[in-house]
Amino acid sequence: MQNAQWIHYAFMTLAIFLEVAANIFIKYSDGFRRRWMGASGIACILASFTALSQAVKGIDLSIAYALWGGTGILLTTIAALILFQQKLSRTGWLGIASIVVGISLLKLA
């Protein structure tokens, strides 16, 4: 990784964690009945897109979007398991594994 390349991956990491936080806040908002939680979710997703826009300055868009979306799905699934006891079936986990393999293949391409 080049010297300045780390900053783009730092923005990517921030974008991913903000996306996961947005999903958690939206779940806690209870269909936007808890407006503060809903507003926090919206703020997090806007901040996530802002960080993603900085990440794509140094990461190919196809790679960045796959990392952002796929890793966000994986981490959101894990958060849902821990926070809300929402479990995936084996088929669901196979789907998650397919996403991870797909991201890895894109990165290697």
Automatic annotation (TrEMBL):
<keyword id="KW-1003">Cell membrane</keyword>
<keyword id="KW-0997">Cell inner membrane</keyword>
<dbReference type="GO" id="GO:1990961">
    <property type="term" value="P:xenobiotic detoxification by transmembrane export across the plasma membrane"/>
</dbReference>
<comment type="subunit">
    <text>Forms a complex with MdtJ.</text>
</comment>
<dbReference type="GO" id="GO:0005886">
    <property type="term" value="C:plasma membrane"/>
</dbReference>
<feature type="transmembrane region" description="Helical">
    <location>
        <begin position="6"/>
        <end position="26"/>
    </location>
</feature>
<comment type="similarity">
    <text>Belongs to the drug/metabolite transporter (DMT) superfamily. Small multidrug resistance (SMR) (TC 2.A.7.1) family.</text>
</comment>
<dbReference type="GO" id="GO:0015220">
    <property type="term" value="F:choline transmembrane transporter activity"/>
</dbReference>
<keyword id="KW-0812">Transmembrane</keyword>
<dbReference type="GO" id="GO:0015297">
    <property type="term" value="F:antiporter activity"/>
</dbReference>
<dbReference type="GO" id="GO:1903711">
    <property type="term" value="P:spermidine transmembrane transport"/>
</dbReference>
<keyword id="KW-0813">Transport</keyword>
<keyword id="KW-0472">Membrane</keyword>
<protein>
    <recommendedName>
        <fullName>Spermidine export protein MdtI</fullName>
    </recommendedName>
</protein>
<dbReference type="Pfam" id="PF00893">
    <property type="entry name" value="Multi_Drug_Res"/>
</dbReference>
<feature type="transmembrane region" description="Helical">
    <location>
        <begin position="62"/>
        <end position="84"/>
    </location>
</feature>
<dbReference type="GO" id="GO:0015199">
    <property type="term" value="F:amino-acid betaine transmembrane transporter activity"/>
</dbReference>
<dbReference type="InterPro" id="IPR000390">
    <property type="entry name" value="Small_drug/metabolite_transptr"/>
</dbReference>
<dbReference type="InterPro" id="IPR045324">
    <property type="entry name" value="Small_multidrug_res"/>
</dbReference>
<feature type="transmembrane region" description="Helical">
    <location>
        <begin position="38"/>
        <end position="56"/>
    </location>
</feature>
<dbReference type="GO" id="GO:0031460">
    <property type="term" value="P:glycine betaine transport"/>
</dbReference>
<keyword id="KW-1133">Transmembrane helix</keyword>
<dbReference type="InterPro" id="IPR037185">
    <property type="entry name" value="EmrE-like"/>
</dbReference>
